[in-house]
Amino acid sequence: MDSSKYQLMMLAALFVSAVVSTIGMWRSSRPVLWFLIMATSFIMLAGFYFGKTGYFKDYLGNLDENLPDLFQPTPSSYAWYAWVTFFALSVLYLTTWIVRSIYGSEEVVAENSTSTDIADLELTWEEIVSRMDSEDENWRSKPLFLVLSPFEDLTRSLLNYRELVVDRVIPDDLKAPMHAFGTPYSVFISLADAGSYGSGGKGSKKRFAWVCKRLRELSETLPSVRGIVILVPYDSVRSGESLRDLGAVRSDLAAVAEILGLSCPILMTFCFEPDSTFHEYAERSKKAGLVGRIGFSYPESLCSEPEKIRPGFEWLAAVLGRSGMGLMCDDISNAEGNQKLLRFHWEMKRYAKEFGNVIVSAMTRLSDRYRPMLSGCYFASLTDNGVGTFVIPLFKGEKCKVMTEKDRTTWSQAELMKARRYRLWSFGLLLGTILLLSPFWYLAICQRAFDSGHIAILAVLGIGWILVFLWKDRQRGG
């Protein structure tokens, strides 16, 4: 094959691959793959010209005699220099950007980290995946919820009871950095020692980022995480420690938005120990048959404005106060219990502002790209034996709170901005490809094809791709 035909074949392949890649990128859920195809085409073109035309081999092989002199690779052709330089810079920039897009999230894990930093996470994750695959073959298709807790015992005391139909807890080691709680309808992943919240933000960003990447690999088509549960001990609210600890949870929420690309409904659950005054209220409510949820949902219209949460806790304190007075009337002779109810009423009024500050500390001071979606704030009572009061409506069954909120999961602002960049780049690359290659296409390739009768090959190629895209549309519609 002579040099001229070889050049024409390369140009035709580049043009077709660029156009098809751009169209495919618009229609694909994984546009980075199409960027790789286009970058490969550009690299092939640049390498071909630098190797075949006069730069290294005494200006051998002009592009085509039919092309204007403006586009011939001669030392005096400034248009040629500009054209090749533009291609070279485009290849350099796009290749760097593509690699960063694919591996950028890994930098969080790799930076200043060693294999020992995540060795315990790797072993635990392998055990979770292996045992879940063998014990529940459908677990990957179930809704998965992240549980962010300051310590693992709090998560286990809330979820690990048969009343919640938790049929497996993996691993068995209580000191493992994370645990999976499997139920017939969902899976909860507790990350007390794998996130910034549980460790106070000390060196855990890379660990949480590593977990997010493993979660993303669980499903290529569906969102891997459908909600986030944040557990806050009531004692830390009273002491003010939660304001400091929950400041660290912001980095975990940002990682979910950045690495997983998701905006998940967040359920704030305030946990009351058995010796708290709320426990008396919970036990009396249970006897009276009042076992629904205690708390409130956050309006969807205000999900991006958690700083407006404080009035909700003031309202909740007033409601619980009136409810507590009614419970006192049901058992007037219970002096000790009634004293606890009175103190509980006082505490709710006293700490209503602190509850609101906790939400603001965790949910604000994040950029709009990572702004979380607060779905509700609820109270749960822990017990030494059995499931706590007001816990079942939050976490048990298909109609519980976390399950009813899971469909609100959507793509995060960070992911939507990335998708918009993909679309802009694809459109710009398509226009740039057409403008840069149009002289060769119209003055050389088409002319040669018409003269030689090979236009049918291009027509068949075009019709073939049209049929492929129509078939794809039919598959999606069916």
Describe this structure in words.
It contains 17 helices and ten strands. With 478 residues, it is of the alpha/beta class. The protein folds into two domains: 168 residues; 296 residues, no CATH class. A hairpin with a 4-residue loop joins strand 3 and strand 4.
Compute the number of helices.
Answer: 17
Give the C-alpha Rg: 30 Å
The tally of strands reads 10
What sort of overall outline do the alpha carbons produce when their principal axes are compared? globular
- Along the chain, the helix and strand elements come as HHHHEHEEEHHEHHHEEHEHHEHHEHH
Low-confidence stretches: 1-6, 24-29, 51-64, 104-113
Tell me the domain tally: 2
Arrangement of strands in the largest sheet: 2-3-4-1-5-7-9-8
Distance between the termini: 46 Å
Q: What is the mean predicted local confidence, pLDDT?
A: 69
Binned strand content: 5-15%
Helix % is 55-70%
Structural class: alpha/beta
Give a short account of the largest sheet. 8 strands, mixed
